């Protein structure tokens, strides 16, 4: 039994589900309301069964008697030793003394119970999340690159509850939680950490590590746990790009080389850089989209479409827009197009397999 508890703790430690904490005043008010409802229920039960009770003064049990009995019973003060003999005294017990006793019990016991049950509630939430999470995107690293990737995901239509952040820094996961994201504190290069993120059921994994060696280790671990999940990773040095592809990455983005080329272009062709920035910044101006050919577009050439076609993927091979092999568009073709952003219609990710903290 002890080993079962230890394995459960290991499974859930580090996983943090984003949620909004209620204020202490709201929590206390909620307890007061619950206590009042319980009190009313007991009063009704006692009054309905009033023939089963006797008053030490004699006579029938009134609603006030039932209320008094209920209050002294629920407040655990007992009854029979000190009995108010007037209605006014009993009314004072109900209206003033008993609520004060309830408030005392709430402050004394309620807060303690809240602390004792907080862990159980959190474990229940984590278990429920793990049973439901699938087709999510895992972002390994919540630095500058990871945050930018998440902003792009959300701008393209991925819900926040479908994004899971893995980072070794607790502060980073706290920030991710504040954005409505689920987080896992831990090293994404470790198998148990990725399993907590349910990498086996992810639709995509983004590796945004700060070091190339860490990116390689994370990519290898992800590919071992999920041989088919698409992996996109960033690398600082261009010479390490091939190593990451050999490790299992489907897409490798060289951050330093890309930044360097843009910096070089900015001196002689600043408008080119501005257009590139517009294209890679989702949710404004021009946006890049990936979509399949519609029925009305089959048989047309890429230049005949309203959208600007950049590439056509057919049979696993990607062809540039000016490649003569494209000919006319076919039903299964996948297009990368440029179109103006429509604020009334948020982008949605394509329907394909995609990619949580330890």
How would you describe what is shown here?
- By secondary structure, the chain is of the alpha/beta class.
- It folds into three domains: 2-132, no CATH class; 137-259, NAD(P)-binding Rossmann-like Domain (Rossmann fold), CATH 3.40.50; 286-340, Regulator of K+ conductance, C-terminal domain (Alpha-Beta Plaits), CATH 3.30.70.1450.
- 47% of the residues lie in helices and 15% in strands.
- The strands form two sheets. Strands 1-4-3-2-5-6-7 form a seven-stranded mixed β-sheet, sandwiched between helices.
- A hairpin with a 2-residue loop joins strand 9 (308-314) and strand 10 (317-320).
- Helix 2 packs across helix 3 (63-74), helix 2 (24-48) crosses helix 4 (87-132) and helix 3 crosses helix 4.
- The longest helix is centred in the N-terminal third of the chain and has 46 residues, at 87-132.
- It is elongated.
List the helices and strands and how they pair.
Blueprint: H1 2-12, E1 15-16, H2 24-48, H3 63-74, H4 87-132, E2 137-140, H5 144-155, E3 163-167, H6 170-178, E4 182-185, H7 191-196, E5 204-207, H8 212-225, E6 231-235, H9 241-247, E7 251-254, H10 255-268, H11 270-280, E8 286-292, E9 308-314, E10 317-320, E11 334-340
Parallel strand pairs: 2-3, 2-5, 3-4, 5-6, 6-7
Antiparallel strand pairs: 1-4, 8-11, 9-10, 9-11
